Amino acid sequence: MRITHVVSGEDHVTNTGVQVELFEALGAAPPAFAHFSLLVGAEGEALSKRLGSLSISQLRDEGFEPLAVVSHIAKLGSSDPIEAAPSLESLVGGFDIGKYGRAPARYDPADLARLNAAVLHGLDYEGAQPRLQALGADLGEAFWLTVRQNLTRFDEVADWARVVRGPVEPLADDKAFLEAAAESLPEALDGESWRAWTEAVKQATGAKGRALFLPLRRALTGLDHGPDMGALLPLIGREKALKRLAGETA
Length: 250
Description:
By secondary structure, the chain is mostly helical. The protein has 13 helices and four strands. It has three domains: 37-120, Glutamyl-trna Synthetase, Domain 2 (Glutamyl-tRNA Synthetase, domain 2, Orthogonal Bundle), CATH 1.10.1160; 123-165, no CATH class; 175-245, Arc Repressor Mutant, subunit A. The longest helix is centred in the N-terminal third of the chain and has 13 residues, at 13-25. The radius of gyration is 27 Å and the shape is elongated.
């Protein structure tokens, strides 16, 4: 059949010995044989093909990026670090079966989740735009570049689009503080507005650090965490910001 290379799992090493002897007994040159590490779970437990959680379709349904999956599986059991590859072509170019050891390779879902986030954080607007549009979350390049660092799955971008567009129910704990903040909000909002605004609020209220920044974030986004507020504030806009600072859902 003129097959030149055979790659199989480490558990077939003994079979390979028999096959080499058969080739030689028949007067034929054996193909080149190689073996890859068997996968085990994060704690060293055996993995079964029957585990639906490891199927490609299940990983897709859970929101894992194709490049994250192949970046993960391509490096398991090798001497290379497990990191997000810039492209499938780079994985192919760096492939060397000599880098793979014989010891079982541990499949850790946490590594895959980390790679998935890294792939999304490096995804440019051109690549993201069709998917943003499909989710009804295409608010432009500035929006994508602002929120992508906070994504672990792509579909989470819809939540951040809602934060920008509304309606958001603000978390307005200290009404007096937020009233003072509203009075200091600049007329025009740009990339420098957040710094100037928070400095003005600090001077007006005496609040600083977490006591200054967290109430503003909670009022404007309804959340305790999220993207850089300096970039997010202009996307929200002054009108919605004022309403949220006043405790209104907007």
